[in-house]
Amino acid sequence: MRHVISALVMNEPGVLANVAGMFAARGFNIDSLVVGRTENPDLSRMTIVVNADDNTVEQVRKQLAKLVPVVGVHDFRGTSYVESDLMLLTVTATPEKRTDIIGLVEVFEGKVTDVSPITMMIELSGSEEKLERFIELMRPYGIEELARTGVIAMARGTQPTRQSTAPARQARERKLDAPASVALPPS
To answer: pLDDT, tens digit, for every residue of 52-89?
Structure first.
């Protein structure tokens, strides 16, 4: 079962390695992992997409919440949320095929970001399924290059949800003389 998990983490070196290490140590394959800044410069948001059963993901969510740099964790399962993925795609576009390609870009609400004599670069955002459908339509034209950001997600407005966010921790102070074991993933 597909799970989208959001983790609010301290914005400091080594956090990504700790979180990825925790998933790897438990034999999870991460389908998508995105980290980005938030409105608070001290915090970053990680969005992790995994395929696993509910019980296993709940255990991982609890272990993730125990990591020192993790402030809160939320599994979007059973809640209303918005997710999006961003893609840049370069496709072979001879002058006679450009009108067809531009028509498809407009239908998918994308935009052409670059044009050369033989290629076009397209920017498209939306659900993973939407991007996959667009990629399939572009294959006959010849995909030259493709880059995707991965899934980002946020809960929709105010809604009654099950509380799966770990209690907020006090902001910690980063010390230069901290023991090296602080940076190691749990064993």
So the answer is: 888 888 888 888 888 878 898 988 988 999 999 999 99
- Distance from C-alpha of 155 to C-alpha of 79, rounded to nearest angstrom: 7
- Spatial contact of 165 and 79, defined as CB atoms under 8 Å apart: no
Q: Is 60 exposed, middle or buried (0-12, 13-18, 19+ CB in 10 A)?
A: buried
Quote the CA–CA distance of 138 and 107 in Å, as a whole number: 13
Question: What CA–CA distance (Å, rounded) separates 78 from 96?
Answer: 47
Q: Which of 125, 129, 127, 124 is nearest to 101 (CA)?
A: 124
pTM passes above 0.85:
no
Side chain identity, residue 97: K
Residue 184 three-state SS: coil
Separation between Cα atoms, residue 129 and residue 64, nearest integer Å = 28
Full set of structural domains in the chain with CATH: 2-80+156-171 (3.30.70.260), 82-148 (3.30.70.1150)
Distance of CA 155 to the CA centre of its chain: 14
Q: What is the DSSP letter of 185?
A: P
Which residues sit opposite 155 in a β-bridge? 81
